[in-house]
Amino acid sequence: MPEGENTHYARIPSPPRVSPTRARRPPARGPHRFRFGAVLLALALLATGILYVQLGKTVTLVIDGNAREARTFSADVAAFLDDQGLEIGEHDKVNPGLGAPLDDGATVRVQIAKEITLVLNGEPQSIYVTGQTVDEVLAQVNFRSGNKAYVRPSRSSRIEEGDTIVLREAVKVHVKVDDIDEEIITNAPDVGYLMVSMGVLLKKEDRITPSTGTPLSSGMSVVVTRVRFKEVTESKAIPFRTEERPTDALVKGTSRVDREGQAGMEELRYRLRLENGDEADRVLLGREVVRQPVSRVVLIGTRDPNVETGIASWYHRTGMVAAHKTLPFGTVVKVTNLANGATVTVTINDRGPYVDGRIIDLSDDAFAKLAPLGSGTANVRISW
Length: 384
Fold this sequence. Notes:
By secondary structure, the protein is mainly beta. Helices cover 14% and strands 43% of the residues. The strands form 6 sheets. A 6-stranded mixed barrel has the order 19-23-20-22-21-24. Residues 1-30 have low confidence and may be disordered.
């Protein structure tokens, strides 16, 4: 073609190149069929969801106070609990009951029973309870107690399988110890525990009735006797003896004290047993003589009496005294009125009488024992 001319040529497309290893694409109608199936599946799932929502129920399940929600198709409580994998035991509690119909929004409460040991006033027993705390268990077994009752563990403690609850009801006992003498309300299990709770210290020698291991019961009396021992020394008089010595210086039937007696003294050591401060017993440990006693000496007359008969007169003197011509002063003379047998004993302390026939002059006091003073004289016998 000559240079400089504008010539237009039509482009003829080349035939498509086909790879020997790749398949030809499917026609454009395929993707439309796939999208239609997916729509059908979605519609089916939606219908199923709507049916699930319409037929399913939301139920609140509370197990021992712990709540959770669950979806279920179950018609009653028993089927629902089985669906939840819960096996209900003989002593478990379900509310509402297992046969109750189940509605949407219902609440099912399950209390799992626990086997525990209840020791009531010292008597153990095995029981099944569903309470979660000691207080709930006490309410379940209908135990009523006052504020003084003993409960272990505390009322607020949680209870697990195999636990032990100890209960002791308070009792009223009469206690007498030291300065205490009154009625006491206590939950102590026995006498010894009561003494400890009261701060009463018992020593080895003390005596307590009943014994410390005795269980307490209402109306019981507990008495503590404080026993103490101590040594004391006491002085004691040793009585004197009376010694009789015969003497012919005295007439038979008469006597005279020659020496007064004097008591001795000894010290005695005792071990005392005191009960509540009062002496209950004593044991003699030893004795020591501090002063020997002095015997009393009495002279006993052995000789026959001297006798003289004559007339007795009287004169003014005081006391039972008389006058004699020869008898030594101090001589004791017995004077007998021969007319009436009356007698009087006088002591010679004067001389006389100096009238013939008269042998003794009596004081007016002595003469009056024998005869009236107006008689003046009396016929007498004197002996010494």
